[in-house]
Design brief:
Oligomer: single chain
Structural class: mainly beta
Number of helices: 0
Distance between the termini: 5 Å
Strand order of the largest sheet: 1-31-30-29
Shape: globular
Strand content: over 45%
Low-confidence stretches: none
């Protein structure tokens, strides 16, 4: 960035926002706890459309990862304990699956929908019609949203295990046991899958065979996701600190202190990281030395990460505002 971010617009939804917005096909999608799906123009923030859903929404809306023949289909979980595949253009429900109340955010890869259903397991369905492709049964509690690549799914469980499954048939490729509990999602970077326990144990695992590359312990409580750029791994913590970990060696150092606990993932863009914290503040810092170059204070806690797209940044706040900043 050549200059600090500039507020382009903000929109008041008059209810706390604790769900990460999604940007797809030039539109910002924001579901709310009152059961509405807002669609906003990304340039002006003006309402393009609004769908009234039957129940409150608990997770971000999940869009296709690329423009496919199913590009109008989105996945959304609501208070009816179901995951719905909807046509976001018309609002029509295409198919739905019983999923329980506490559901990890589903995933889409190519033309497959991946659903993570408590006490049942993982369902892989055709995105177009919901027809079953395969199912992996488990009663273990999922910890976070799965990571997916072209051949595998990486799933974390609260008991400290990460499991790698074949994307083709759901068979187990490998399991890895940590020495703690997990509350977050795995992160893929290069040939590695990165995970962090709530107790601050960070693992770099070779993702094809599940071999440990290194393990490091940070003296912090971490519940948000990690972020990585191939050179370093970044972690925010409940003790208000941000840590940078060397990607190759696992050596760690504290680079930034905020005035509030951090429960979301850092966001990396070029040479900077953005941090959202419970002290109502957005921090932008040099990712190499942690020097703060920009802050912006909102009127509510910030519990989801910054979303970067097309030279802009979105922040959803519990003060009810969706903020859009222009990155220079």
């Amino acid at each position: 960035m050549s200059a600090p971010p500039e507020l382009a617009w903000k929109k008041d939804f008059k209810i706390p926002l604790s769900i990460e917005p999604t940007v797809f096909d030039g539109i910002i999608f924001l579901p709310t706890a009152t059961g509405e799906l807002w669609m906003l123009g990304q340039v002006s923030g003006k309402t393009v459309a609004k769908r009234k859903l039957k129940n409150p929404v608990t997770n971000s809306i999940v869009m296709p990862d690329s423009m496919t023949k199913a590009d109008s289909i989105a996945l959304i979980h609501d208070g009816s304990k179901k995951i719905h595949a909807i046509n976001w253009r018309s609002g029509k429900t295409i198919w739905e699956v019983e999923a329980g109340r506490f559901v990890i955010e589903p995933a889409i890869y190519a033309d497959m929908a991946l659903l993570f259903v408590p006490k049942i397991g993982i369902k892989c369905l055709r995105l177009l019609d919901g027809v079953r492709i395969w199912e992996f049964k488990t009663i273990d509690r999922f910890a976070g949203t799965a990571a997916v690549d072209s051949s595998a799914i990486y799933v974390t469980f609260e008991n400290g295990r990460i499991t790698c499954l074949s994307l083709e048939d759901g068979s187990i490729k490998w399991n890895f046991e940590t020495n703690g509990r997990l509350r977050n999602s795995p992160v893929l970077c290069g040939n590695s899958v990165l995970i962090c326990t709530t107790e601050g144990d960070i693992y770099n695992i070779e993702r094809r065979e599940g071999k440990l590359l290194w393990h490091n312990k940070i003296d912090a409580i971490i519940i948000g996701n990690l972020a990585a750029d191939g050179e370093r791994i970044y972690a925010g913590s409940l003790n208000r600190s941000v840590y940078a970990i060397d990607f190759e060696t696992g050596e760690s150092r504290e680079i930034l202190n905020t005035d509030g606990p951090i429960v979301s993932a850092p966001t990396i863009i070029n040479n900077h990281i953005f941090i959202t914290a419970l002290d109502h503040t957005i921090y932008c810092a040099d990712k190499n030395n942690g020097e703060i170059v920009f802050t912006y204070r909102t009127e509510g806690m910030l519990t989801v990460r910054a979303v970067i797209f097309d030279g802009k940044m979105l922040i959803a706040g519990e003060d009810g505002f969706l903020y859009c900043f222009k990155l220079k």
